[in-house]
Amino acid sequence: DVQLQASGGGLVQVGGSLRLSCAASGFTSDEYAIGWFRQAPGKEREGVSCMTSRDGMTYYADSVKGRFTISSDNAKNTVYLQMNGLKPADTGVYYCQGLGARGQGTLVTVSS
Question: What pLDDT is attached to residue 68?
Answer without folding.
Answer: 98
